[in-house]
Specification:
single chain, alpha/beta, Uridine Diphospho-n-acetylenolpyruvylglucosamine Reductase, domain 2, 7-stranded antiparallel β-sheet, 28 strands, oxidoreductase, flavoprotein, oxidoreductase activity, acting on paired donors, with incorporation or reduction of molecular oxygen
């Protein structure tokens, strides 16, 4: 029989005894501590002496951090597939992708019948399992359109909504012995999981052939099915007394033929003995891995990734997929993977990258960057959240996605020092800091990634009281184009630190920041809606009110053109950075006089609550034509120009974000974000088809603008580059670009090189 070349995995098979529930959990924790990969429990719901397997699995998931969890195997007749699909996806999400689904058709029918489920013949049970697998996979397939419809003889769903999608591609493993179950395993499952006590090793070659033949008939590579084995009737003894009855070195000798000759690659030890678990993890697992690697290397065994034929056909030219390092391969996503739809798009831009790499730390980022540079494909970096420009994805390129670098740490509550991974999203940051009465100035959307804002500026609801995000960053960890992992702060690599705060996308991949948070727990939020028919007058009044408001106030104004005969409407979000109503009310009241008020409300809210919540995958809503400019004051001429743009229908969205205050306390040359005299950031968006009309109106107001905020502009070219970076700043950036990125590796986001 062949060695299928799978990476070896090791786990435990623990008795879920109800008499000692803490012991059943403690053995799972020991499994993780011993370095093993998987902890499993048998599922016999009709046995009152056992804990319910599903409840136990959820508890164990919460008590562990790394180890995989699975039923061994779950009783499908007593766990309906529709609910099981939802439960499995939920547990996988909560455990950060650690759940595997072991399924059985049902063996002890007397017990199953006693719980109200009609008895099935063996053939019917296999058919029911096949229908259940179809339902489960369809529920997880959130890329498909429409509801799930399966009309089976035993299981049916009629329009069930899909989702949630699991955190990872959950494997379905079947406990199978008879030919029909073996053929089902080959045709539809991801793994075969028999128990050695019920399996004659002499029958394994025939069983493996049955699985392989069924896989080929289904258009699958037999290597897609992992071969797993429950080990029972075993013991660690000083001297050998039989198969798996002896010292650890004998176990290695006994198990090695099962890998090389029978194709098994996962061994699950049935034991409740702590000593056996420790020995299995410390002595057997590493020695068997080493022996198998040695033999496989000598035999030239293919140990590369196994991919379906359809997925292989979706690969793009110019990318050496099979050369991807093993540690990056586990979380990489290719076209054809079930998780591809969740990582292919940006927030606005639809994408079809050839490969998405998802490193977990700075060294893996450096490795991913080096590998990506060697490919004949574009390179894009995504911080983990959304952006407007659409530069975080591509068609056919390699995307380095930092979403797994999402840790938020409170380094010192007293000094308010925090460390945040570049892949975190601001909603999660706000939620993590709020229990400490802290907040960090950021954007207005919880779905935006930390890395994008921390390298461009960061205009948000705390800007006037606390400054931009970059103004509160004290250090950065950066992977440069040549693969170095550098710390950049005021003392160490200060020139890189300067450049990263405003033009960071040009100089490296940001992996984390250190920052000083502000003592802000809750804020007072005023929300106002105005009749904006007299648009120019409202804009002038907004200028006079917002500019002279206390610096604890930061106000955003959004104008939307009228439709169907209705007039233009303006909506304001006015945030007072504090929770004292007696101070906040007089600061917010002047905004009631800006224009005719259609609606008003005010509330005290935790700072994270005012951020738009969005932590789901991006769907590529459609890349707009977006224009950005900075404004010192809204003059009558500028107000008229903006009013004309709204009235023309050239833009469907125009927003004024307030800066000034603490933003302007910083010297223009202190960071690469040099715009320190303006009071507003203006953004206007239009559908691509009306971009030319938007530009005609934008050209009319351009003489009244003073620079731009690059995160809200989809244009490129020397003209907009000069607006983003004034001349002294741009010259300094170009000199540093030659030093840190002479080959212009980072050329996708407002490149400052002479040919950018």
């Amino acid at each position: 029989m062949p060695d299928y070349g799978h990476r070896l995995r090791f786990g435990t098979f623990i008795t879920p005894t109800a008499q000692d529930p803490d012991g059943a959990v403690a053995l799972a924790e020991l499994t993780e501590a011993a370095g093993l990969d998987l902890v499993t429990y048998q599922d016999h719901p009709y046995n009152p002496g056992f804990l319910d397997a599903w409840t136990l699995l959820t508890w164990v998931a919460a008590r562990t951090e790394r180890v995989g969890i699975s039923g061994n195997v779950l009783n499908l007749p007593l766990r309906g597939p529709a609910m099981l699909a939802r439960a499995a996806a939920s547990l996988d999400l909560l455990s950060k992708g650690r759940f595997e689904l072991g399924l059985g058709a049902g063996a002890f029918w007397e017990g199953i019948e006693s719980m109200g489920v009609p008895r099935l013949t063996p053939g019917q049970a296999v058919d029911a399992l096949a229908e259940g697998i179809d339902i489960i996979r369809a529920v997880w397939d959130t890329d498909a359109r429409g509801g799930v419809r399966v009309e089976g003889e035993h299981h049916s769903v009629r329009g069930m909504k899909r989702g949630p999608a699991p955190a990872h591609d959950i494997g379905i493993h079947l406990g199978a012995y008879k030919p029909r179950m073996l053929r089902l395993t080959g045709a539809r499952a991801d793994g075969w999981l028999p128990s050695l006590g019920y399996l004659d090793l002499a029958d394994v070659p025939r069983s493996q052939r049955t699985i392989d033949e069924a896989a080929r008939e289904a258009g699958r590579d037999p290597r897609e099915i992992r071969r797993m084995l429950n080990l029972g009737q075993s013991a660690f003894l000083p001297t050998g007394r039989g198969f798996l009855q002896g010292p650890a070195e004998q176990w290695v000798e006994d198990l090695l033929p099962l890998v090389l000759e029978h194709g098994f690659s996962t061994f699950v030890l049935g034991t409740d003995d702590p000593h056996a678990i420790r020995t299995f993890g410390a002595e057997v697992a590493p020695a068997l891995r080493e022996a198998a690697e040695r033999e496989r290397s000598a035999a030239g065994t293919d140990t590369g990734p196994v991919r379906p034929a359809a997925a292989l056909a979706a690969r793009r030219t110019g990318i050496a997929y099979d050369d991807l390092p093993e540690n990056l391969r586990e979380h990489a996503v290719e076209p054809g993977d079930r998780g591809y739809a969740r990582v292919r798009h940006g927030y606005m831009q639809s994408g079809a990258p050839g490969l998405v790499l998802r490193p977990s730390g700075p060294q893996e980022v450096a490795q991913a960057l080096a590998w990506a540079r060697a490919q004949e494909a574009p390179l894009n970096v995504r911080s983990g959240g959304h952006g407007i420009s659409g530069r975080s994805t591509s068609d056919g390129g390699v995307v380095v996605d930092l979403a797994r670098l999402n840790r938020v740490e409170i380094l010192d509550p007293g000094t308010r020092r925090v460390r945040i991974g570049a892949g975190a999203r601001w909603g999660a940051v706000g939620a993590a800091l709020n229990p400490y009465g802290l907040a960090l100035s950021s954007g207005d959307h919880g779905g935006v990634g930390v890395g994008g804002i921390a390298t461009t500026g960061g205009v948000g609801y705390l800007s006037r009281s606390q400054g931009l995000t970059v103004d509160n960053v004290t250090a950065m960890e950066v992977v440069t184009a040549d693969g170095r992992v550098l710390r950049a702060d005021a003392q160490e690599n200060p020139d890189l630190f300067w450049a990263m705060r405003g033009a960071g996308a040009n100089f490296g991949v940001l992996t984390s920041i250190e920052a000083t948070a502000a003592p802000v727990g809750s804020v007072v939020l005023g929300q106002f809606a105005y009749d904006a028919s007299a648009t120019a007058a409202l804009l002038r009044a907004w200028d006079e009110t917002a500019v002279f408001a206390p610096r604890e106030v930061t106000a955003f104004l959004t104008l939307v053109p009228g439709h169907g005969g209705s007039g233009h409407v303006a909506q304001a979000m006015v945030v007072y950075a504090g929770d004292d109503p007696e101070e906040a009310v007089p600061a917010l009241e002047p905004f009631l006089r800006v224009g005719p008020v259609l609606d008003q409300r005010a509330q005290i809210a935790p700072y994270p609550a005012i951020l738009v919540h969005d932590d789901g995958p991006h769907r590529g809503h459609g890349l707009p034509a977006s224009r950005s400019g900075l404004i010192t004051r809204i003059t009558p001429e500028l107000a008229e120009g903006m009013a004309g743009m709204i009235a023309s229908g050239a833009t469907y969205f125009m927003q004024l974000r307030q800066v000034g205050g603490a933003v302007n306390d910083v010297a223009p040359d202190a960071t690469a974000y040099a715009h320190r005299t303006q009071n507003f950031s203006l953004a206007a968006m239009a559908a691509p088809g009306t971009a030319a009309r938007l530009d005609r109106h934008w050209d009319g107001i351009t003489p009244h603008l003073d620079g731009m905020y690059l995160s809200f502009d989809t244009r490129t070219g020397p003209e907009v580059l000069a607006q983003a970076f004034p001349a002294p700043t741009l010259a300094r950036l170009r000199a540093l670009k030659v030093r840190y990125d002479p080959e212009n590796v980072f050329d996708q986001n407002f490149p400052v090189g002479l040919d950018g």
